[in-house]
């Protein structure tokens, strides 16, 4: 089990072993000045030395057994001009037409590479913008004493989880995709596995703090939440500790049962649910809490049995709903309960491209556009003007009086 290979990588290692053996034979025969066809490696089969006029028959390579149970034979003629083309073609003789790409598949591969490069560029920009904005938002919330409250404490933890998530994505990309020639099937270093583990932990922690935000807001709306240090420590323990427990369980299962490559391939792995399961549950619970908060907001907007008499109430409800979507990660519900292989391209766009800007949106909505934050920053700016110049402009005084605090 410790030296096991993922099925997607098994055929690569088999071909590499055959290629190395064939290259040794080619080197040995090159030193001999004999006529005929020299050994040749055609990326699939190693054809031995043969005399002109001979027909060499070779069974389908053992690597094809990974794609089909059918066995066949491929032949080549040794002519005065060299080896002929294989007949019948590999995909016909070995019955793997659907699995072995034709030469025209190069265009599809190039198209996919271009698509993934574009996706990577977009989410790199998104995570970079989120990282910078979140660091500024955390610095603002920690700098002003009047902003240090339980609500902002929860916000700071959420912002920090977004920061770690963005940083972990950059670290993982730098480790796994440092070069286009990187062989992911042989990349099995401690640094590579550590980057994958750190990325999974940061993602789980981010979803955990999205859940903490939803729980805290529900408590505030439903009942009076005790604002004690014990309560805040409980949120911190749940937000950072629960993901740590599941990530440790996943590390143990990978080490003892699926220690393959860099731990970045999780298809058809039952142990992947150690990480995916809690995330799916948190998204589902978050969505239910989101709907409950919307129900409460509707009731609080108009206590007369939800009778909307003007468009202002609709605007307030719509604004509240839109503000809660990025805070609770409600957009993840779109693909939460679907199989991993369904709508892959659309999933990439939503989870990677759109999701990478979530931290930026949260920082803007819950820090930069927050009236309390704006008032505190403005007052600090006025104090600086007064201490620096001794006089505050009349326009500044007017804006100070007009700003609610």
TrEMBL record:
Regions that span the bilayer? 121-142, 154-171, 207-225, 232-251, 271-298, 319-338, 344-369
User: What membrane topology does this protein have?
Assistant: Multi-pass membrane protein
| InterPro entries, per the entry | GPCR_2, GPCR_2-like_7TM, GPCR_2_extracell_dom_sf, GPCR_2_extracellular_dom, GPCR_2_GHRH_rcpt, GPCR_2_secretin-like, GPCR_2_secretin-like_CS
In this chain the G-protein coupled receptors family 2 profile domain maps to 21-98, 119-370
Keyword Ubl conjugation assigned: no
Mind listing the UniProt keywords for this protein, alphabetically? Cell membrane, Disulfide bond, G-protein coupled receptor, Glycoprotein, Membrane, Receptor, Signal, Transducer, Transmembrane, Transmembrane helix
- What is the protein's known function? Receptor for GRF, coupled to G proteins which activate adenylyl cyclase. Stimulates somatotroph cell growth, growth hormone gene transcription and growth hormone secretion.
Q: What is this protein called?
A: Growth hormone-releasing hormone receptor
> What species is given as this protein's source?
Electrophorus voltai
């Amino acid at each position: 089990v410790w030296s096991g290979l993922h099925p997607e990588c098994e055929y690569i290692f088999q071909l590499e072993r055959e290629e190395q053996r064939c290259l040794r034979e080619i080197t040995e025969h090159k030193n001999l000045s004999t006529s005929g066809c020299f050994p040749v490696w055609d990326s699939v089969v190693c054809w031995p030395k043969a005399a002109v006029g001979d027909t060499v028959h070779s069974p389908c390579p053992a690597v094809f057994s990974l794609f089909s149970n059918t066995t066949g034979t491929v032949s080549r003629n040794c002519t005065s001009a060299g080896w002929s083309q294989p007949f019948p073609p590999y995909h016909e003789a070995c019955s793997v037409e659907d699995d072995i790409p034709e030469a025209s598949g190069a265009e599809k591969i190039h198209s996919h590479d271009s698509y993934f490069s574009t996706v990577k560029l977009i989410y790199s920009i998104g995570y970079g913008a989120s990282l910078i904005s979140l660091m500024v938002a955390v610095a603002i919330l920690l700098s002003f004493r009047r902003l240090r409250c339980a609500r902002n404490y929860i916000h700071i933890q959420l912002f920090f989880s977004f920061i770690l998530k963005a940083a972990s994505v950059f670290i993982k990309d730098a480790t796994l995709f440092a070069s286009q020639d990187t062989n992911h099937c042989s990349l099995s270093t401690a640094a590579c596995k550590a980057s994958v583990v750190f990325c999974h932990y940061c993602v789980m922690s981010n979803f955990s703090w999205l859940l903490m935000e939803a729980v805290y807001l529900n408590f505030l709306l439903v009942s009076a939440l005790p604002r004690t240090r014990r309560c805040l420590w409980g949120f911190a323990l749940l937000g950072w500790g629960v993901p740590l427990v599941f990530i440790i369980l996943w590390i143990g299962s990978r080490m003892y049962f699926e220690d393959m490559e860099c731990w970045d391939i999780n298809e058809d792995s039952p142990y992947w649910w150690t990480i995916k399961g809690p995330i799916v549950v948190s998204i589902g619970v978050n969505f239910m809490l989101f709907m409950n908060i919307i129900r409460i907001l509707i009731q609080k907007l108009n206590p007369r049995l939800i009778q909307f008499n003007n468009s202002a109430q609709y605007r307030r409800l719509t604004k509240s709903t839109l503000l809660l979507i990025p805070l609770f990660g409600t957009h993840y519900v779109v693909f939460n309960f679907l199989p991993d292989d369904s709508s892959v391209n659309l999933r990439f766009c939503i989870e990677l491209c759109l999701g990478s800007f979530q931290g930026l949106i949260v920082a803007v909505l819950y820090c930069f556009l927050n009236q309390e934050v704006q008032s505190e920053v403005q007052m600090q700016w006025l104090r600086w003007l007064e201490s620096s110049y001794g006089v505050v402009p009349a326009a500044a005084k007017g804006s100070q009086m007009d700003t609610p605090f």
